[in-house]
Amino acid sequence: xxxxxxxxxxxxxxxxxxxxxxxxxxxxxxxxxxxxxxxxxxxxxxxxxxxxxxxxxxxxxxxxxxxxxxxxxxxxxxxxxxxxxxxxxxxxxxxxxxxxxxxxxxxxxxxxxxxxxxxxxxxxxxxxxxxxxxxxxxxxxxxxxxxxxxxxxxxxxxxxxxxxxxxxxxxxxxxxxxxxxxxxxxxxxxxxxxxxxxxxxxxxxxxxxxxxxxxxxxxxxxxxxxxxxxxxxxxxxxxxxxxxxxxxxxxxxxxxxxxxxxxxxxxxxxxxxxxxxxxxxxxxxxxxxxxxxxxxxxxxxxxxxxxxxxxxxxxxxxxxxxxxxxxxxxxxxxxxxxxxxxxxxxxxxxxxxxxxxxxxxxxxxxxxxxxxxxxxxxxxxxxxxxxxxxxxxxxxxxxxxxxxxxxxxxxxxxxxxxxxxxxxxxxxxxxxxxxxxxxxxxxxxxxxxxxxxxxxxxxxxxxxxxxxxxxxxxxxxxxxxxxxxxxxxxxxxxxxxxxxxxxxxxxxxxxxxxxxxxxxxxxxxxxxxxxxxxxxxxxxxxxxxxxxxxxxxxxxxxxxxxxxxxxxxxxxxxxxxxxxxxxxxxxxxxxxxxxxxxxxxxxxxxxxxxxxxxxxxxxxxxxxxxxxxxxxxxxxxxxxxxxxxxxxxxxxxxxxxxxxxxxxxxxxxxxxxxxxxxxxxxxxxxxxxxxxxxxxxxxxxxxxxxxxxxxxxxxxxx
Length: 718
Hints:
Layout: H1 3-21, H2 45-48, E1 52-53, E2 61-62, E3 69-74, H3 75-81, H4 86-90, E4 96-100, E5 108-112, E6 124-128, E7 131-132, E8 155-160, H5 164-167, E9 174-179, E10 190-197, E11 201-212, E12 215-226, E13 259-270, E14 273-285, E15 298-313, E16 318-336, E17 343-362, E18 367-386, E19 397-400, E20 407-419, E21 424-435, E22 438-444, E23 453-458, E24 461-475, E25 478-489, H6 493-501, E26 511-522, E27 528-549, E28 556-578, E29 583-596, E30 612-623, E31 626-635, E32 642-643, E33 648-649, E34 657-667, E35 674-681, E36 689-690, E37 703-704, E38 709-717
Parallel strand pairs: 6-9
Antiparallel strand pairs: 1-2, 3-8, 4-5, 6-7, 8-9, 10-11, 10-38, 11-12, 12-13, 13-14, 14-15, 15-16, 16-17, 17-18, 18-19, 18-20, 19-22, 20-21, 21-24, 22-23, 24-25, 25-26, 26-27, 27-28, 28-29, 29-30, 30-31, 31-34, 32-33, 34-35, 35-38, 36-37
């Protein structure tokens, strides 16, 4: 740790202790800790800035008072713009940009402010109603787990920036919380919907909700599917025949990227007790490491997440939330090339539980603090594969943490807030997280003739991360935020398992990030809001995927390493305007520069880091029963990753692109509660190319995005 960082950490610890120590001298007053945010229809801009959210501090507070950079997407906005999926929402969040990796676990990933983390949302903590959606083999949150329908989403809270103090190592680049039970007493309690569109897309949804005094019940269920991208392979690779997998010059992706998902969620709460259950299944065709014109290649993902807890305001100033979470994940892969005898199979299975206790104490009108403890226990982490299609040296293999052994991650965090005056607030907090020692074993020839298990011992670690924020609000129209935070990203179990298979590799250590940020929000006149943000990130020990040759098989393999060190600096600007005639406009843009600081790589810019990002949202409600919405986004050109062995990029640079979506919605015209929604994405049919990732090296021209798509949805709220 650098001397500068030690000084900063010491300062934040001291401030946190000082804030908490005030509890012995002050008198408690009533706190609105668990105030619910009701269903938000036709909300005004000024009221939007007053929305209370919980993602950032695990305690409700208003957006302008939150110590972070926050974006909130309400149900009303989802309907006005006709978002068709969670992925649709996220790619419109300022600072986020999608990259389709054709990845086996979940294809779509997101860069955040010029930083791209391997995996599927592996750099952000994703939660549904506060429940982690992670799988522990790659420590990521794949969309195949988060398969919830757009109709079930009441609100999405997105925090950009390090959030490890509150949510641990998963919140390396930020946190996302998706709320599905934020209902109001005067809102329709039942809903059914169906949708049909391009590429044989279809969806069916049902919802039942009840809320009465101390009781709340919400049930969501859906089935949806699509045939996926239909494009010639020669748009991704010059000569498809050269792959040797049966592709012809005219071969297309049609029928090779189908995606079918099933989901249900049940939430029940009574007098502080609550249960939240969610299950998802995704059957998706993939390209694997290389596409084929033969038999199908697919993944079959099953996930189950459950939470049981008790949330109670013990007194006017003290509240607690005790919770037990359980995560189950199973991903079965099936590859078949050319014929059934040329096959490969694999499976990843993980399950884990979380125990957490969060307490909130309002010492006075000016001081409050939060303290929490958490234990995550990984019960099973297992990966097996059988790949005779690639090599006789890979007949059957199994990698796992040993049976009856558990990996424990224990943590404690504390955060204090002090209102020095009515205009100035200070927030300081820290987290200490300990990963216990654990073992990983690897065996070849499982089920045939076992060659014996190769054990690998991993020492674990203890990490400290702080955060500090100063919020100055001189009046109701201006707010300044000065933010500092650190975060860590523990190496996933699956990544460290490569050390067992390839003993020459170094054991991975946690990646680290340090962020400085300034944010200014101004409302010069009513219904107008301007935002300006500056950020600077110092990234070290970042885990990248690298190419190497397996000396035993002679095959090229992809392995992870703490190979990344970079700095990136950016500026974000946003303008929100709302007219009295229900015309709403949001414009924002980001300019960011990423620099490679690894020794010997200063002249090689990091991959997957566009300099320019632009976002536009425009909507108009000519009547109370109709709306027109337009969204646009621009992503600047991007370079692919770097191959150090070959001293060149792994693929071509991709050009910038701009996309415009349009949505038209009618509600209550035929009958009260009945709505019709027509959404057209990429209406100009622009070609979208994502830079080639390690998981799709064959597509050296880039990974192709979707062209023009239509979706007609109909539903009834009653």
